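Sample pair:
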Amino acid sequence: MARTNNVTELIISGLFQDPEVQRACFVVFLPVYLATVVGNGLIVLTVSISKSLRSPMYFFLSHLSLVEISYSSTVVPKFITDLLSKIKTISLEGCVAQIFFFHLFGVAEIFLLTVMAYDRYVAICKPLHYTTIMSRPVCHRLVAASWLGGIIHSMVQILVTVQLPFCGPNVIDHYFCDLHPLFKLACTDTSVEGVIVLANSGLISVFSFLLLVSSYVVILVNLRNHSAEGRCKALSTCASHITVVILFFGPAIFLYMRPPSTFTEDKLVAVFYTVVTPMLNPVIYTLRNAEVKVAMRRLWGRKVNSGVEP
C-alpha cells in the first residue's frame, strides 16, 4: 500500500440507508444473484457436455457465461450480506483486490463480446473460410487474449491506486469499491489519476463499442446477399449479441466517459450492470437460440432418465 496510509479499513455507505429498504433489497437481489450463477452455470455445463454445441460461437458463449459468474461474484455476495449489516466495512487491501478483479472480469467481458462479434462477422461474411479462420487453436488464443487484456488493464488501474495516500476520511460513497469513489478518499489531488482511468477504462469501452457497432453494420449489409431463411437465423443470433452489448456498454460508457463529479445516480446504474445484466445474459441467449434450448432439454431429459433408472 502507499507509504503514508493511516487508513486500514473502509466503511461502505451502501445503496440505501433505510434498514427496511435494505431488507427488501436483500429479498430481491439474493434470488437475482442465484439466478445469475445457476443460469450462466447451466450454459457452461450445457456447452461443455452437448456434442451439438461445438461451434466457436458456443465456445465463446460458455466463456462469456463463466466471466459473468466471476464478474458478478466479485461484488454481489458482499453487497447482499452488507444489506443485513448495520456497519459495512472492508479492509483497504480487500478494497483494492475487489477493484482489481472487478475490472479484470469486466474488461475480459468487453474483449469476449468483441471476439464474438468477429466470429459472427467471419461466419456471415466469409462462410467458406469460417472453419479455417476460426479453428480451435485460434479460438483458444482469442479467449486467452481476452483474459490477458483484462489482467493488463487491471494491473494498470491498481498501480495507479496503490500510489495514493489515504489518511482519512474512510467512508466510501458506494456499495462496493470502485476507482472514482476511492479516489475521493485520497489525501492528494487525483486529477491525473482520473485522466488515466478515463483513458484506460473509458476509451477501451468506447473503442470496443464502436468496433462492435461497425462489425454488426457490415454484417447487416452483407445479409442482403443471403436467403430469407439465412437472414432470419443470422439476425436472431446477432440480435442476442447486440442486446447484450447495449446492456453492458451503456452503463460502462456512462460511468467512465464523463468527469467524476456527481455519484448520486451512479449507484443505481452500477446495480444494473453488476446485478441485473449478468442475470439477463443467459435469458437473452437461451430464449433466442433454438439450439441451446434443445441441448438444455436433452441435458435435462438425460438427468431425469438417469434418476429413474434402477
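The CA atoms of residues 100 and 154 lie 5 Å apart.
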